[in-house]
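Margin note from the TA: students keep mixing up input and output lines. Inputs are the sequences; the output is the structure of the whole complex. Example:
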Amino acid sequence: MRAYGELNREELLAMKQEVEASYEEARGKGLKLDMSRGKPSKKQLDLAEGMLTVISSNEDCMAEDGLDCRNYGGPVGIPEARRFMGDIMGVPMDQVIVCGNASLTIMFDTVSRSFTHGVLGNTPWSKLDRVKFLCPVPGYDRHFGITEYFGVEMINVPMTPEGPDMDLVEKLVAGDESIKGIWCVPKYSNPQGISYSDETVRRFASLKPAAKDFRIFWDNAYCIHHLYEEAEKQDQILNIIEECEKAGNPDMVYEFASTSKVSFAGGGISAVASSKANLEEIKRHMNYQIISHDKINQLRHVKFFRDLEGVKAHMMKHAAIMRPKFETVVSVLEKELGGLGIGSWQMPKGGYFISFDAMPGCARAIVARAKEAGLVMTGAGATYPYGKDPEDSNIRIAPSLPTPEELAVAADIFVLSVKLVSLEKLLEEKA
Amino acid sequence: MRAYGELNREELLAMKQEVEASYEEARGKGLKLDMSRGKPSKKQLDLAEGMLTVISSNEDCMAEDGLDCRNYGGPVGIPEARRFMGDIMGVPMDQVIVCGNASLTIMFDTVSRSFTHGVLGNTPWSKLDRVKFLCPVPGYDRHFGITEYFGVEMINVPMTPEGPDMDLVEKLVAGDESIKGIWCVPKYSNPQGISYSDETVRRFASLKPAAKDFRIFWDNAYCIHHLYEEAEKQDQILNIIEECEKAGNPDMVYEFASTSKVSFAGGGISAVASSKANLEEIKRHMNYQIISHDKINQLRHVKFFRDLEGVKAHMMKHAAIMRPKFETVVSVLEKELGGLGIGSWQMPKGGYFISFDAMPGCARAIVARAKEAGLVMTGAGATYPYGKDPEDSNIRIAPSLPTPEELAVAADIFVLSVKLVSLEKLLEEKA
């Protein structure tokens, strides 16, 4: 296969005619496919059916400390749920608060609280002229959405295969007191599937930010979301809570996790882990915001998964469903785009996404083409703050929701769209 | 029975000796009773056992619009839950958003959003020098807690048997642009059990506040929480959403409700009803804060209660448990304190509380005395902003949690504490 870049105008035109025919054929089918969001598939959701009835009587509703989960009380979560979520994050239960159904809400509320009440006695961000966040890119659109909603100025930091560019992170946080935070998905990152190296985690823990109220928002969303069973094919990252303690920066990080992609999306439980001082501040806030979270659902989770081993075993059932989907997409990409020089991607070992980098200036057009042919992708640009990918290159592929059959068709439409737009771009350049 | 105020010093001393002996006897029993919070009793919680398994299979998890409740989506709630909560509030479903397990959280988040983002285009409250709220007193401590946490200046407005003193409310909101809201529990109010008269509701709907972003926080927490089955013994209030529309003030009110005291406390569902413009603003905020609430739990509620008639019938089972408790407390109050002139109370027709007004300057001492004898009451002052009852008179009695047997004992301890402190006070005055 010759790279498209090496083809002359006539060859490009011929190729384009060929690709266009295939594309039109696909479009004619009137398909309706969705690879836009990291939604679990029906089969994955079915795996947790037993959770629906694991609490089936009034007597089942007691927490191990005797608290009746059907009543008020237990604002920080029932003990067994704190232990369970702590085990998932590798954090002692007394450094964990278990909350409602969405870790996104804990993150949002943390930013909101920092604006209205400040962080550990520092000036509320609403009283400051400027508040900035570092945003490793490509990244998670909903993270960037929160900071955009609060008017935070977002600064792009490029991702490397080891995590965010730490030279840049260190330099920026040390030199600018208005930089108050950084969004991180440290394991199987959204969308690239990159896991931070030990050095990256240690450098995070040893940051010397100018702002005393600088915080790392460590969204460990995919901490147990491996695609492979073999230990050597599973990424492991260092424990940021421990590393921050060792480095003398215990208050510098909030870690978040949830079971949204373990049990039910929107019907799971979430948790935050942090230092004692940070948790006290969160508890004080929560004391006004809520009497207690849904402890019945917390108990459901512990009764169903039992413990870390139980939930790890459950995640292997997810992996068995997810792995072939990832492999299908990547094999179509390799087969259809390999060697063409019009895009790059990696096969991740976990998480929910495959990140695709098209030729600069092509991502929006590719997503638009795919949509015309019935395939909804994540909006191009979504992986960057303000929805602006300066290169217009990155596209997030979310292979979880479609069935394997749909996925093969979807991947075909995607590669046809990539080819078509790339050919148009190359022809334009040669015009 | 002669009023204590008519007794002379010797009679008071003799009476005190007698009461003290009874009090010491009660104290000697080492009891542990709790009338502090509006928590449902075990028997009430047991009533909803069927809800635990009403969704028992994967197939049960589909909402009426085909949405899979186990997956992301449906940020405003599933249609049947919006209709259900709308019916409870008397509001069309398209004016309802169903949220998580706590209406308190919706209220908190509404105040928080007003501080960070402002209300319908008005200046964010965080940018204002002063923000004030009107607080009908006595009222709900968690309402006052939210505004206190945000540094809002709270202004007491006395309650009357018809609701808040509307002459004062009208005058205050018309004359002060910094008054941004008022906390209301319009039906079976916390703690007095007062339901607002039609005139009061209409005057609320017709308010002419100086502040364009003035909002009524209408916490309809006890809208279906009657103690009696007979229609004439059930309070009805006018529909504030409709009245505000009629009065040309559709945006002036947020109404809140939940099933915390219908199904499970902390395991229920909550909702907010308001105008289209207000709901759009809430939706925009929620879009950044959460992907979707726990729709499985929303569906559980609708499957279990079915509809308004179903939930009303269920509430009558609650009433059968609650009514004797209220009657026990009130009958002990009447029997032991009637005619003594040392306290006043009313028997409410619904809600969760009995409000007791002691002689001025006695409430704190009474609560302390009760505690010494093993009975935890709501802290004196809690029914007032900043925990400061200017008269030190009001005490909230929460009879729901204890068993009937415990309750009789608890009521005895309470009246002994009232008598003892009142006698001490009168003796002090005569000294």
